[in-house]
Each structure stands twice: as structure tokens, then as C-alpha cells.
Amino acid sequence: MYKNIIISSGLHMMLIFVATLSLPFLIKKPIDLPPIISVELIQITDQTSIPFAPKAKKIIEKVKKKQEKLVSEQAPPKKVKKEKPDAIPLPKEKKEIVKKIEEKKQNPEKIEDEVKQVSEFEKDEMFDPNSIAALIDKSKEEQAETTKKLDKVTQSQDPSMKLSGLTLSEEDALKAQIFGCWSIPLGLPYDKNLLVRIKLKLKPDGSVIKTEILDHARMNKPGQAFYKVLAESALRAIQLCQPLRVPTTGYERWKDLQLNFDAREMLEG
Amino acid sequence: MKIKIKIFFIALLILFPFKSLALIEVDITRGNLSPLPLAVSPLSSDKDDQQALQKELDIKDLGLEISKIVENNLKKSGLFNPLNKDAFLQKPDIAHLKPRFEDWSLIKAQALITGKVNFEDDKLRVEFRLWDVLAGKEMLALAFTTVPKNWRRVGHIISDKVYERLTGEKGYFDTRIIYVSEKGPKTQRIKKLAIMDQDGFNTKYLTLGNELVLTPRFNPTNQMVTYLSYFKNLPRVYLLDIETGMQEVVGDFPGMTFAPRFSPNGKKIIMSFAMDGNSDIYTMDLENRIVERITNHPSIDTSPSYSPDGKYIAFNSDRSGYQQIYVMKSDGSKVKRISFGKGLYGTPVWSPRGDLIAFTKLHKGKFYIGVMRTDGKGERLLTENYYQEAPSWSPNGRVLIFYRETKTDSKGEGFSAKLWSIDLTGYNERLVDTETDASDPSWSSLLSN
């Protein structure tokens, strides 16, 4: 009898424990947690202001030191000053604790990256454009690496991001790009089921490594000329558009992508 | 014990929820509706061949001329945008063997047509290739051999093949149009039967203009034409063999017959027969000359048109009080009204695809050419004008040709009748070139299948 009561109460305790851990409204959030930054905003800034890579930054700094004398009046603020706005204004002891938590949840490199971004914008006007242009190739490679590191953190940390999809702004950016490239074959019938699904394998810069039409067998079947025409037009659109306008972060998330081309809406008018 | 294990696993699942890593799907439902940019490179030819062909046809560069035909056809379809030849970076002879796709994508071409013209044993040999510039691959390669005089048809056949490969539906360029050629003032028009290529070239007159001719219609085999003319001052349906020029009156009816059209297999003629103020629809078998009455109603039933499978007939009738479109079975049973819009509906023509019926509509003093589905739903008016009628389908069911008349001014001048074409989108409306004024066009089926 007592045994059963003990088991029952034990299970109840376990359930309460599990519920406490898994149900978010039961967890008391610390008040001083940094506000959640919406993914859309991050994506837009990433797209409109691509940060320089660490290597590029080092070279830029060297160039900057050389030119410091000439442009002393326009010299950028010191690094310490720039870190201040991003740092949490807490006493030293508390700051250490916060840092430990951040190591688990937040990506320290991301913060560094944002710092770079600010400084580089200020520096932008001061450098010889030729020297920057020479770094573009390298910066792309570096950027890809950094984004790989970053995306793990942003996915798990930001609840506004879909676990297995693109954000609205990412999807809209990609759609808008392909809309412009896709010449819909105007002779297609609007009343037939013509949906072409193409699976893509992408590089981090959005260029296409491989395309695969999922219903490929249908292309060569007799009486499926319209499907073939639509599939070919979709492939042309992908070729014309590449590199695709993919997010700068989260490569693992979108390295495999499926595009569903459906012209019915347009053809029906 | 088992319960404990189960509970343990449930707890484990709640504590460590799995993330689903499904493939990201993006739906692309919009695109660019502008015509596909393509490059038609002049067809290359050796100097010797070029000289020989110049002697034969009095054309300096036949390859260039054929490419112009292809370009013109594709442009008129409204689906393609042929790029200016001045922008081409690669010479025709090299482009035909292996195009430098970068050069062609640089000028924004998505497809490329190259070709070669040879003159061997008094025969013209034309080969062409269609390339996908962006994919960098060949899409189609064909060669034709014919007598040199047929060079325009070669251009049309190439256009058809390219059109079919890029749109998925058959082309309509290697076709002819029969129409009524008109000359003179409105009150004294001289009307002749004329036939021409769909691009307005090679016009030939089939009658002399002594008698009034109306509503010519092609037989599906293209050898025969049926039309309306006058015999003993009565309008009668005639049959004309284009090859031999032989004419005959269809049947011996006591009244007038009009609005003829062939059945899809070409074995019957369907027409209206009017007597004592009543008009009904009849068919006549061309082999055994047996006449069959299809409708029997005191109203005026006319303008019959078969569905492509021959199972149904569309016609117009005023049995409801106003002229409307009806559909019935080919034996005359199950008559069903399909047009219910405001205004008068006439000249229904069943699309070769079988999905639509084209018609002329008169509403508030204006004439419209439109299409509706075979059940009468989805009516779309494609074009509106002062006076226009007699739509005829292109063989692929994508374009309609019709004629349009202009108003005469106060002096009785300024009248004209011209052929126009419009595609199903309603945007691609074009004047069809004819030597004279023209009316009552009928589009043939493809000459080469």
C-alpha cells in the first residue's frame, strides 16, 4: 500500500519536475536578459551591410595605421569605446557570471563581428578602394566560415526563427529574385497540374552546385511536353539567378533547398 | 517494471524534444511574363552554295532570309522576343558548330537558333539547331531537304519546331489562310476567294470575282474549301478543290444554303438551310451525298461548328427570343443553351483543342470577339470594336483570326476591311498583312505534321 503511494507520489513529483522544465511559462525569466533581436532585422542588416572578414579586417587595420596621420581628424573611435554600448553595464563580478552563461547560449564571435561591422563602416571612406577590392575574394571565404559557426547559435537561441525553414524576409528575398528571372512559358495550359519541384544543393554564397528535378521521369513521358517546358524554364531561371539571394547565416539550414515552380496563378490571370 | 521504462522514455522525450530538420521548400508562384529573349543567328552557307542559290532564287543571302522568317514568326506569336542581330558577337558559321554560350548569355539570350544552308543536287538542304544558352546544351537539331522554291516553308517549319520545343504546344506557322479579298467602293465590292501563307506572303486568287463569295472554310485535309456563293441568284454552298480548281454546288436544295463548315474528319459538310423564313441545320455526307436534318425548330438556327471529336455541335439560335449560343449532340439531341450574358451571341467556333468556343458578341452597338468554355462558363471578351466578326482558330487553338471593318465618313469614304489576329491572352493583337482589303478568314491546319 505504502509502496504504491510512494511510487504514485514519485511519479507526480517527476511530472511536476518535467513540466517545470519544459513549460516555458513556469520558468521565471531573469529580468536582465538582453531583449530578443528579431531574425528579420538581423537578416536585413546582414544583406545590406556585409561585414568584412577577420583577415580582411587585420589588413584594413594595417592600412589604417599607415594612414592614421593623414586622417587623424576622422579617426574612428577607440575599440574600448565601441565595446561599451554592446557590453552589459554590470559590476565586474556579475559580468563574469553573465559571460559564463553567454558561452552556452550566445555566440561570442557574433558580438565581435558586430563590433567589426561598426568600425568598418566608419573606416570605409578612408581606405583606398583598390586595396579593399583585392580582399573581396578572401573575405567571401572567411565569411562563409564565420556564418557556419554562427548559425548554430542563432537557430537554437532565437525562438522567432523557424526550426526548419527560412524566415519571412529570407523567403521573400529569394522569391523576389527568382520571380525576376523566371520567364513563364506563356503557352502553358492553366488548367493542368503542372508543378515542378526542383531540389537544389547550394554553396554558402548561394551559387548552385546541383539541381535535381524531383519528378524527372515525367519529363520524358509522352504527352508531358508542357511539364518538360515548365521544368526547363525553371532550370533556366535558377541558372539565370545564381548566386541565389540566400541568407548570410545558417548555411546548414538552407544548403539543401527545394523550389516548387507553379505557374497556374499567373496563367489564369 | 515495464511501466517505469515507459514513463522514463516519455519523460525523456519531453525533456529532450527533437528538432525536425525537414527540407526547406519555397513556392515560386510568380514569374516574368515578358516574352522569352532568344537569338536567331543567320543560317550560314558556303560561298559556292550562296552563289548557286542566288542564281536559282535571286536571293543574295538565303540563310539570312530564312532566319528573318523564323524571327518574324516567333515575334508575332507574342511569346518570344528575338534579339537584334547587330548585337550578336559570334559569327553564324562558328555559332552553328559550337556556340560560345557566354557570348549569347551576355546579350541576355536564353535560347539560340543556328543553322546551315546547302545546295546539293538542285535540292535545298537546311539544318538548324536550337540551343539552351543558360544550360549550355542542344535542345533540338533537324534537317530538311526540299526544292529551293519552298524556302519560305522551311522557315515556317523551323518556326513551328522551335515553338513546339519551347512552349510544349504545336506551332501554327506552316499554315495558310483563306479569305475573301475585297476591292472597290463599299456599294460595289468585288469579292474574290484568296489564299495566302499565314504571314501574308504567296497570295493566290481562287475565283475571278464575277460572283459574290462569302464564308470560305478549310477542310481539315486542306485540299478542299467550302464557301458560299450565288447560283441562279440564290446563295448556295460550294465546294472547291484547291489543287485542281474544280468547283461544285453542294446538294440540290430548294431554298438557300449558307454558313457551311466541314466535320473534323472532312467527310461531311454541316450548314444552314433556309426555306419559308425558317432556318435549320443540315449535314451532307460528301461520299454518298446523303442529307440529314439535325435541328427542327421554328426559330433561326445557324452557324454550326463541330467539336474536334465530332461528338457535339455548337450553333446559334434565336429560340429563346434573342440570338444565343447552343450546344447539342451531333445527332441533334440534348440541345443546351450555353450563353447567358447580355447582348447577342453569334458565329460560335469550337477550338481545335476542344476546351473553348470562340464567338462574336453584339452589345450596346459594339462588337466583341470572345471565348467561353464549352459549358458557357468563363466568358472572356478579347477585343472590342465598331464592327468585327467571324473568328477562326489557329490549328493549335491559341490564336484567333477575324476581320474588322472601319466606319465610312460623311462622304462615304474611308471604309476598309482588314484581317486581325489576337491570342488568348487578349494582349497580342496584330494586323495581318493582306494585298487587298479582306474579310471572312479561315485558318488551315498545319501543312506539315
Features:
heterodimer, A: 269 residues, mainly alpha, Fusion Protein Consisting Of Minor Coat Protein, Glycine Rich Linker, Tola, And A His Tag, Chain: A, Domain 2, 13 helices, 3 strands, 8% strand, B: 449 residues, alpha+beta, Neuraminidase, five-stranded mixed beta sheet
| Overall residue-averaged pLDDT value of chain B | 89
What is the terminal separation of chain A in angstroms?
A: 74 Å
Largest interface: A-B, 52 and 40 residues
Count of the domains of chain A: 2
CATH class group of the largest domain in chain B: Mainly Beta
Described by the principal axes of the CA atoms, the overall outline of chain B is globular
SSE pattern of chain A: HHHHHHHHHEEHHHEH
CATH superfamily of the largest domain in chain B: TolB, C-terminal domain
Span between termini of chain B: 78 Å
Assembly annotation? heterodimer
Low-confidence stretches of chain B: none
Strand order of the main beta sheet of chain B, please? Answer: 3-2-4-5-6
Spans of chain A of 5+ residues with little confidence (pLDDT < 50)? Answer: 36-52, 69-129, 131-163
Shape of chain A: flat
Average of the residue pLDDT scores of chain A: 65
Radius of gyration of chain A: 26 Å
How many separate domains of chain B?
A: 2
Description of the molecule:
- The complex is a heterodimer of chains A (269) and B (449).
- With 269 residues, chain A is mostly helical.
- Chain A is 58% helix and 8% strand.
- Chain A has helices at residues 2-22, 39-48, 54-67, 79-86, 92-105, 108-124, 129-133, 136-157, 168-181, 216-219, 225-241, 251-254, 264-268, and strands at 195-202, 208-213, 256-262.
- Chain A has a three-stranded antiparallel sheet with strand order 2-1-3.
- In chain A, helix 4 crosses helix 6 (108-124) and helix 9 crosses helix 11.
- The N and C termini of chain A lie far apart (74 Å).
- Helices cover 15% and strands 43% of the residues of chain B.
- Chain B has six helices and 30 strands.
- Chain B has a five-stranded mixed sheet. In chain B, strands 9-8-7-30 form a four-stranded antiparallel sheet, with no helix packed on it. Chain B has a four-stranded antiparallel sheet with strand order 10-11-12-13, with no helix packed on it.
- Chain B starts with a helix and ends in a 6-residue tail after the last strand.
- The interface between A and B is large, with 52 and 40 residues.
